[in-house]
Write a structure and sequence with these properties.
two-stranded antiparallel ribbon, 8-stranded parallel β-barrel, 36% helix, alpha/beta, TIM Barrel, 10 strands, 397 residues, globular
């Protein structure tokens, strides 16, 4: 049998067992209990992967519990820019894990957990298209998810004798209801527009969930969704997107039935809105209407845990259009973390970014400026992480 066909057969056979097991467990599982603790962290893949010597001392100083990193399957930073001979083998010569190994080793040394968001399709898997287009065969993505979870199982021994630390929390993709995350967003079928991104994403969610859980390791968690807070629901728009509620409903209809948590990017409606402000946009899901997000998740998937995998406010300077003053960003840090702490369903809140992006159209929600100047939000964030640690008895008052 051809190597690729063998690989596909192996993945599909184990996936059937995993998905059947998940279906049985979902029937007999007890209701979700309140979150024992809130994981508060920061996401800045560019800085952490590109300048770990700068990023990790800052993360340690902040007292973060977790950092969310993009694990690029494809794209220019991709692990699998060449097609592997055996996609489920973490040691396949086509795979290059170098920056990700370095990050998990340094994070582990500092007592920081890593959450990996698997994103980006290699050109060989989607006909030479951009990384934000779904793979033609989701089994290839499932094989990669298995290889990644196996490599970061906590027992994987590299050829140089180094045992890599464990990663137990995974996110499937990133903002698939926006063009930035997945294209096409809409497709016309029989004279009617359908949210194609949600249908493609159902395959992505299922592939990553099954691939990670194929390891049969205890404690593995896969969050699906990672949805953006808003979408224009306009198939004819230049930057067409899908509102989060409609996207969630469509992905559920398309067969996205298994996940351990629902991930969402609960950004506010704009700089004038504090974290607790109910959005004027009725289709938006923000921290301000968090109960609505939870209600939708309950209706579609039951009492899954909620991960807020991106949140933040840009600052002015540098962004004088959408930014808030530095002092207000600090106040919003405190408010956002308190909202998450008070809600027993929320297990995670990840701030985006650590340091402002320097590029003209970049994101300026960092806790430091692009030149490295510490903003007041840095100290506000640190104060909140210390309060959480004190509540858990891990830090003296």
């Amino acid at each position: 049998m051809h190597a690729a066909a063998t690989d596909t057969f192996r993945v599909m056979r184990v996936a059937v067992v995993v998905l059947l097991s998940a279906a049985v467990l979902s029937v007999f599982a007890p209701p979700a209990s309140p979150s024992a603790r809130l994981q508060v962290g920061v996401s800045d893949s560019g800085l952490v992967l590109g300048q770990p010597d700068v990023a990790f001392p800052l993360l340690s100083k902040l007292g973060v519990r977790v950092t969310r990193l993009m694990l690029y399957w494809g794209s220019v930073r991709g692990v699998a820019r060449r097609r592997p001979t055996d996609g489920v083998d973490p040691a396949d010569p086509a795979y290059d894990w170098t920056p990700f190994d370095r990050a998990v080793l340094e994070a582990d040394r500092r007592g920081i957990r890593v959450v990996f968001s698997i994103w980006g399709t290699p050109g060989w898997a989607n006909g030479g298209n951009s990384a934000n287009r779904a793979p033609r065969n989701p089994v290839w993505l499932q094989a990669f998810a298995y290889a990644a979870a196996k490599r970061y199982s906590g027992t994987y021994l590299r050829r140089d004798g180094v045992t890599l630390p464990a990663v137990r929390q995974w996110v499937a993709w990133n903002e698939p209801n926006l063009r930035l995350g997945l294209v096409p967003q809409w497709r016309r079928v029989g004279g009617k527009w359908v949210p194609q991104s949600a249908y493609d994403y159902a395959d992505i969610c299922n592939a990553i969930y099954a691939g990670v859980h194929m390891t049969l390791l205890r404690g593995e968690q896969v969050a699906c969704g990672a949805t953006a807070a808003r979408g224009n629901n306009n198939p004819r728009a230049r930057w067409a997107s899908v509102g989060p509620v409609g996207f969630m409903e469509a992905m559920r209809r398309a067969g996205a039935t298994h996940m351990d948590a629902y991930a969402h990017h609960a950004y506010s409606d704009g700089p004038r809105d504090a974290p607790g402000t109910v959005p004027r946009n009725r289709t938006a899901l923000t921290l301000g209407n968090l109960p609505k997000l939870i209600a939708v998740v309950n209706r579609l998937w039951g009492a899954k845990r909620i991960w807020i995998t991106e949140y933040g406010y840009e600052t002015s300077p540098e962004d004088r259009t959408f930014g808030v003053p530095w002092s207000r960003q600090a106040a919003y840090v405190t408010s956002a973390i308190e909202i998450a702490r008070r809600n027993p369903r929320v297990d995670m809140l990840i701030w985006f970014l650590l340091r402002d992006e320097a590029r003209f159209r970049g994101w300026q929600s960092g806790l430091l400026s692009a030149k490295g100047v510490i903003k007041p939000a840095f100290w506000a964030f640190q104060k909140e992480t210390h309060k959480i640690a004190q509540a858990e008895g891990k830090l003296q008052p």
